[in-house]
Amino acid sequence: MMAEPREMKENKLWHRPLIIFITVLIVVGIIALVTTAVVQNKALPKKYKYGIVLDAGSSHTAVYIYEWPAEKENNTGMVRQTHSCNVKGKGISSYAARVKEAGMSLKACMDEAKGKIPVRRHHETPVYLGATAGMRLLMKENETQSEQVLSSVADFLRGYPFMYEGARIITGQEEGAYGWITVNYLSKNFHQERSTMGALDLGGASTQITFVSQLRVESPENSLHFRLYGNDYQVYTHSFLCYGKDQALRLTLAQQLQTGDRHLSDPCFHPGYQQEKSVDRVFGSPCVSTSLSRPTYANFTLNGTGNAKLCQSNVKRIFNFSSCTWGRCSFNGVFQPPVEGKFGAFSAFFFVMNFLNLTSSSLDESKEKLEQYCSKPWDEVKQSYSAIPEKYLAEYCFSGTYILALLENGYSFTSDKWRDIKFLKKIGGSDAGWTLGYMLNLTNMIPAEAPDAPPLPHSGYVSIMVLFSLLLAALLLLLACKVFGRPTCAQNKYVI
Ligand SMILES: Nc1nc2c(ncn2[C@@H]2O[C@H](COP(=O)(O)OP(=O)(O)OP(=O)(O)O)[C@@H](O)[C@H]2O)c(=O)[nH]1
Ligand SMILES: [Ca+2]
């Protein structure tokens, strides 16, 4: 009777170190597993790639830097803008008479880009320059000069340690298409079965409208077909050269100067606004039709009268609604299907509508507010917005009226469709514009088919691995209890 307890005690003495050893092993194992999972799951210092696009617009040039994680370049929405720089002065087309300086004008922004991108990435960072309507107009006026301007900027960009990938004038069709790609890429609309949004871009010298149309696009030059991430898109696009807001102002002024009076009473400017303007500046543009008669005097005086209604009827005269050889037209005989779906309106559409506080107003409300704004005396306007450069400030009444006329009468956004227009500047930190779409296309970052996704996301995979390891460990522990006897486990509360 006395021998049995001694044996049990001996057994227990032999068990204890083993159990402790196994428990420690299991605990260490679990800690190791969890640590591995956590470390693995934590954002590793990612490898980023970079790209630079110069938007050589008619009014100014902007330099954009984009960044994306190297291993995820084919996923939609991964590229983001990390920096932008506005080149001082006017657009590159304004250097026509002093082409050598065109390249140098980019120096400050390009030097800044050098500082923003890690040195070890410089040699593999592509640089693209795309010129838009200002250079398209210069090309029409003087081909040699436009080529010289492009080679001046090209030579200058080649002097940087980046990978120079070209400087060219992009077509209006490309400008529209890439703007559409940009807004939908940034909104992650190419994912799943989401519908896309149209893109409205208003520059200084041209304006673009691009959207998916269910209706057949009758004119081949306005029709684009894309296969992106496994989906097909039939896209309508048109770029109206000369219908950017600066050229539209010239067209409106040229129309009004047909009366022959060198004192122009202009309803698109505030009452009390007065300025001497050059006839050359107005009629020197290739946009101003040669059928209009050019006044003989060199300057004219513009006197604001501040009447948005009259302004609107003047502005409407620059659109030709009378001839259309297609089923339906926007203006100037250009085919356009009815606008469909939501739209993102950016660049000057945003600057102007945002300044006028009209980004969330209905069409009727916008007209009303604009009437009030235009009728404000110039002195009052200057006082209220002393921080805004006078050049911009003087033109908001005209620009707002032009935008309403272009959208309502030009593109046929009726009152109910007006709500579908969202005036925006950026989407998730990146500017809306053609540059991102241009770079995505040239670097082959928008695949036709959806990239193969692993069955589980990485974090899901790790979580499942950890869960099963824990389960396994618990089972092992249970097994140990069974092997080494109940009392020990019961004492340690391991057995249920
Ligand atoms: N109010 C205001 N106007 C601006 C600003 N930036 C540009 N603009 C004006 O808005 C118009 C359009 O500007 P952008 O979109 O930069 O035009 P752009 O790219 O130079 O011209 P395009 O080659 O026709 O595309 C021009 O008349 C500019 O002078 C701004 O910050 N505020
Ligand atoms: Ca532009």
UniProtKB/TrEMBL annotation:
Top EC class for this record: hydrolase
GO molecular function, one term: apyrase activity
Keyword tags: ATP-binding, Calcium, Disulfide bond, Glycoprotein, Hydrolase, Magnesium, Membrane, Nucleotide-binding, Transmembrane, Transmembrane helix
Keyword Nucleotide-binding recorded: yes
The reaction(s) this protein catalyses: GDP + H2O = GMP + phosphate + H(+); GTP + H2O = GDP + phosphate + H(+); ITP + H2O = IDP + phosphate + H(+); a ribonucleoside 5'-triphosphate + H2O = a ribonucleoside 5'-diphosphate + phosphate + H(+)
InterPro entries tied to this protein: GDA1_CD39_NTPase (IPR000407)
Protein residues bound to ATP: G204, A205, S206, T207, Q208
Gene Ontology cellular-component annotations: caveola
Topology versus the membrane: Multi-pass membrane protein
EC number: 3.6.1.5
Transmembrane annotation, as ranges: 18-39, 461-484
Pfam families associated with the record: GDA1_CD39
Main location: membrane
Entry function: Catalyzes the hydrolysis of both di- and triphosphate nucleotides (NDPs and NTPs) and hydrolyze NTPs to nucleotide monophosphates (NMPs) in two distinct successive phosphate-releasing steps, with NDPs as intermediates and participates in the regulation of extracellular levels of nucleotides. By hydrolyzing proinflammatory ATP and platelet-activating ADP to AMP, it blocks platelet aggregation and supports blood flow.
Family recorded in the similarity comment: Belongs to the GDA1/CD39 NTPase family.
Name of the protein in its database record: Ectonucleoside triphosphate diphosphohydrolase 1
Species assigned in the record: Albula goreensis
